[in-house]
Specification:
- The structure is a single chain.
- This protein has 296 residues and is of the alpha/beta class.
- It has two domains: 1-52, no CATH class; 54-295, Alpha/Beta hydrolase fold, catalytic domain (Rossmann fold, 3-Layer(aba) Sandwich), CATH 3.40.50.1820.
- The chain contains 13 helices and six strands.
- The chain has helices spanning 3-16, 22-30, 35-52, 73-80, 99-103, 108-124, 137-148, 170-173, 192-199, 206-209, 235-245, 261-267, 274-295; strands at 59-64, 87-92, 129-135, 157-160, 182-187, 217-221.
- Strands 2-1-3-4-5-6 form a six-stranded parallel β-sheet, with helices on both faces.
- α8 (170-173) links the parallel β4 (157-160) and β5.
- α1 (3-16) crosses α3 (35-52).
- The chain is globular and about 75 Å long.
């Protein structure tokens, strides 16, 4: 069986089986797994069971993806986190969000979906500590959940390809967290956060320039928007797993490169909005002029 099929099988079994019957069902299914895939099945099953006991040591790592994707990288994270004590990785997703939805203000659907999933996890395992790894639009979702739901607390927050405003008030919206609990992995070659900051409202370029605040930890990498998940970088094992396994934040050897004035302008939380504001004003006046011409 393919690796992805094994991962999906374990997930389906876990979510679709009554708690009191899970171990029996897993044992029965394991008997029919081809020998070459049995070890992976056992490790994944153990990964779920070890993290599922609702005790003060239980930890759940949720994963939230961005737009134009089904978050296939989440299965890689799940596999690479096998063996981390008391940790269960939970993939979370939502229906397709296109660039059109991303640019406009029809963003509430994914936020409500992820919030409902988090509340379900909290209800089923109230003692478990919840952490999150979010990418791209997923970072925006998490930022909005924190803003509007002060009862939501994360043990660790890891963002990559972040489109959160660089002026985001972490102290206000995540007062429970220290700077070492909020880790922002920056792709210095990633222009999508810059574009998001320039062409629409509500986003920022923290995925390109970092937050540069005492409330969060920025790490810089020679990456584009989704290079965090490329196998050749081994980013999950090198930079994320130690956070949950050893409680350390591995440093990156990459430094934030010197930026030119235009880039800094486009990354500015206010000046960078001049373009969408100008377009908005032009559209309003264009509409008014069109109506006046049509009426008269």
């Amino acid at each position: 069986m393919e690796k992805t099929n094994i991962i999906e099988l374990v997930k389906v079994l876990w979510e679709g089986t009554d708690v009191s019957k899970r171990r029996k069902v897993f044992r029965e299914v394991q008997k029919n797994i081809p020998e070459e895939s049995r070890t992976l099945f056992q490790e994944l099953a153990s990964h779920y069971f070890n993290g599922a006991v609702d005790t003060k040591d239980s930890r759940i790592l949720i994963l939230v993806h961005g737009i134009h994707t089904n978050g296939s990288w989440q299965q890689d994270v799940q596999e690479q986190m096998i063996g981390v004590p008391h940790l269960r990785v939970q993939e979370l997703g939502y229906d397709l969000v296109t660039g059109f939805h991303f640019a406009l203000f029809s963003r509430s659907g994914p936020i409500k979906k992820i919030l409902a999933e988090i509340n379900t996890i909290k209800r089923e395992e109230p003692l478990a500590k919840i952490s999150v790894i979010a990418h791209s639009f997923g970072t925006y979702i998490i930022s909005k959940i924190l803003e509007n739901n002060p009862d939501i607390r994360f043990e660790k927050i890891i963002t990559c390809g972040s489109v959160i405003s660089r002026n985001y008030n972490w102290t206000k919206h995540a007062p429970f967290a220290h700077s070492t609990d909020i880790i922002n992995d920056v792709g210095v070659k990633d222009l999508w956060p810059v574009i998001a900051n320039c062409v629409t409202f509500g986003y920022g370029a923290s995925g390109n320039q970092g937050f540069r605040t005492a409330s969060a930890t920025d790490r810089y990498f020679n990456y584009g928007h989704s290079d965090f998940f490329e196998p050749q970088h081994d980013h999950i094992v090198k930079y994320w797993r130690p956070i949950f396994e050893d409680g350390i934040i591995p440093k990156s050897a990459v430094k934030l490169p010197k930026a030119n004035v235009p880039l800094l302008w486009f990354c500015h939380s206010k000046k960078g909005k001049a373009i969408p504001f100008a377009l908005y004003v032009a559209a309003v006046f264009g509409t008014i002029a069109g109506l006046v011409w049509w009426i008269f």
